[in-house]
Amino acid sequence: MDEKDRAMELYKLEYEKDAERYDNVYRSIWNIFSYMTAVAAGFLAFGAERIEPHALICIASVPLIFWFWTTYLPLDRYGTDVIKRLGTIEGTLNKEFRVDLNHFKPNACKELSVFKKLRQVRKTKKGSDIWEQVHRARFAIGIFFILLHLVFVYHLIAHYRTGLPLFIDKPAASAPAAPTGNVTINR
């Protein structure tokens, strides 16, 4: 095996592993999100009778906010780095081995952060460029989690202002009252 074939094999191996890693990163993000939504739904379903309503909304929001900060943002950043590396590998393979790979290269050159790109697009004031950014999943995720943070803060303040405890005291179930008056027994 000559030097060029060995280089091709190494690039091919790295390309395959990076493509697999890219898929696994986003699969993990959404798999973990589904678990966090199940936990949040569990709080809403089973905590409604025992937890003060404002506190319940705060508690149910915590798993999703936790996911956003500890899973989505870091793994999305990592996925962006992986796609940039895949684009670089495609460029190298296209140049050195005269192949035509363009699966990841178009995205590797773009700014993938929605909010950074929106700042750049706002300066150009082209409606199609703005729509392209608004139409992305990252934009919807960002807006949803900004709103979720605001809902969390609102209900946290509302719970604090009510002065109610976190758990609602339910009256103990009482035994049925004994009948009063004359009781007749039919035989």
Provide tags for this entry:
187 residues; mainly alpha; 6 helices
Describe the fold and architecture:
By secondary structure, the chain is mainly α. It has one domain (3-162). It contains six helices and no strands. The chain has helices at residues 3-47, 53-97, 105-108, 114-124, 127-134, 137-162. Helix 1 (3-47) packs antiparallel against helix 2 (53-97). The radius of gyration is 28 Å and the shape is elongated. The model has no long low-confidence stretch (mean pLDDT 85).
Shape: elongated
**How large a portion of the residues is in β-strands, by DSSP E?**
under 5%
Biggest pleated sheet: none
Mean pLDDT: 85
Helix content: over 70%
Query: Quick one: how many beta strands?
Result: 0
Q: How many structural domains in the coordinates?
A: 1
Order of helices and strands: HHHHHH
Return the structural class.
Answer: mainly alpha
Helix count, per DSSP? 6
Low-confidence stretches: none
The radius of gyration computed from the alpha-carbon positions, rounded to a whole number of angstroms, is 28 Å
- The termini sit apart by 105 Å
